[in-house]
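Re-run with default settings, no changes from the original entry. Doing this only to confirm the output is reproducible before filing.
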Amino acid sequence: MKKQLKVILQYLSLPDYRRSLFSELSKDTKINFEIVCGKSSPYPFLKNYSPHKNTNVTYIHNKYFRVGKTTFTWQKHILKTIINRKPNCVIMLGVDPTIISNFPLFIYLKLMRVKILWWSHGTLGHQGILGKMFRIFFYRLSDGVLLYNEDGKQRLINYNIDKHKLFVVGNCINHESYEDPSTNLLRKKIKIIFSGRLEHRKKLEILFQAIKLFKEQKIPVKLDIIGAGPSQDTLKTLVNTNNLEKEITFHGAVYGKAADRLISSANVGVIPGLAGLSIIHYMARGLPVITNNNFTEHGPEISAIHNGKNGYIFEDGNYYDLVEKILLAIKNLEVLSKDAFFTVKKYYSPEFVNENIIRSIIQVNKSYG
């Protein structure tokens, strides 16, 4: 019997949306998987979870300090904690200059010939030319990069990073968030869901204008909003100013089954601005997804949307076009809904991502060992 590879994942905390994936990695017999992380994260809106018995977690202390508007993280004793476990491979969270303890850890692991994989969007950040060079340097030094989609892989290839050590593993949500779409097909009225942080880059005011147009045309419509954030008060004022209180409901920060129920009660998910993992949340409940055509601002999950097949792309900022796409989604709901669910079950499940990560780990340990 082959000896298991000892694999450690360095993470900031245990985010709830990773629960099923971490469980899959923990029970996979091909590796001995352990997470080393803090109990808190620098992101107050991020919900964490308590690990199950089958998930091997070692907690360390995250220390935070601010320089200007930027929060930096130092994970106390992470070097000692990981060294003591004598891993074959360490997966590290992104190439993020704000997690400063990662870089002495990276250098030590390289000296000890431990395989290192970054788990990353494959972006080069917004810290100017020095930040870009910094990221490229550490991507190149690593043994591999786990990426969410082909776009991230191509970005790194364009910066002369060896394509053979770039692995597209995908992204996923928790098992219970997947639901057969047939329950949504009974609702032909327009019931829209938005789930995400309430901030300027989500462009919710465009969706509100679309709701206003529906109301003016006497077309019944309902919008449920899940989430909180810095723009919450401004958005509520905008709803009141336009007399849309009956059409738009703010539910605040809702998680788990309560969030799933709200998503399941809708028949279309709309993200007028920056779109990310919520695309997968909507599709997992059989909802077609509508978002804008400014692809540079979206997360890697945008690649799940196939225009006209499981959702629609509207012209950025054009709420008339958004109205048209919502009406198209309702008209073609059955076909779009089934394709949306099929897409995430096949390519965005915890099992699928787990298999890709395990395959990448094994390949790195063969190729570089």
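The chain has two domains: 5-172+349-367, 176-347. The mean pLDDT is 93.
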